[in-house]
Every structure is written in C-alpha cells, then in structure tokens.
Amino acid sequence: MRRKTELTLLQGTLDLLVLKALEVGAQHGYGVARWVRERTSGAIEIEDGALYTSLHRLERRGWVDSEWGVSENNRRAKYYELTRSGRRRLAAEVTAWTRYAEAVFSVVGSNEAAS
To answer: How many domains does the chain have?
Structure first.
C-alpha cells in the first residue's frame, strides 16, 4: 500500500531519475533507488521491478554501461554508470523536463480563474 506522502511517477520520469542518480558515479541498483528516495525526502520510492527494467532499457540504448563488483556489504552487485552518450541524453532530458515542469507550474501555480 502506498503511503500518502509517496508520489506516483509520471511516464518517462523514471529513466530521467536513474540517469541523474548515475551522474555522480557508478552505483548498483539499490544505490540508485536510495539516492532517489533520499533526494526526494522519501516522496518517491522506486520499485525493484521498475528500476531494473529502466536500467536494462538504458543499457540497451547505450546510455548506461554495467560491470559486476562488490557492494559495501561485501556482496556481488552489478554497478551501472553513465556513458558519454548517457550524459548527453541526461542533459537533453533535464532541459526538456525543466521546460515541461515550468509550463505546468505556470498553469497550476496561477491564481487566475479559467475564462
């Protein structure tokens, strides 16, 4: 059951969040999910299935590379990192989402009544 403070991700948002989480460096899936949860003060929780579907999709598109390593808990984990192409894609996505968010906020943040 969803907590009232959690937000439902809009379609297309998950890949952007994953790319942004990987901007700081290679992380395993749990690290990506934790980064998003912490950055959103727990408002966005990424389910494992959706996260790994996104990571694999990004890898197929050449925006993310992966490599097996050992986690901080001394367990085998797959680490993901942005490719050069992934960094370009992230920049384009941030620009597009910023324009979109500003446009939506100009409507919902307005005190003007509809005509």
So the answer is: 1
> pLDDT tens-digit profile of 62-99?
999 999 999 888 999 999 999 999 999 999 999 999 99
Residue 103 to residue 39: CA distance in whole angstroms:
23
Q: Which of 81, 82, 60 is nearest to 69 (CA)?
A: 81
Q: Which value, to the nearest 10 degrees, does the dihedral of the CA atoms of residues 33, 36, 39, 41 take?
A: -70
- Dist. CA 37–CA 18, nearest whole Å: 11
Give me the helices (H) in the chain, please.
13-22, 29-39, 48-60, 84-108
> Which residues form the domain of 53?
13-107
In Å, what is the CA distance from 31 to each residue of 9, 66, 71, 101, 103?
Answer: 19, 14, 10, 26, 31
The answer to whether residue 114 sits within a structural domain is no
Confirm whether 4 is domain-assigned: no
**67: which strand partners?**
79
- Could you tell me if residue 18 is inside a domain? yes
Q: Cβ contacts of residue 75 below 8 Å, gap of 6+? A: none
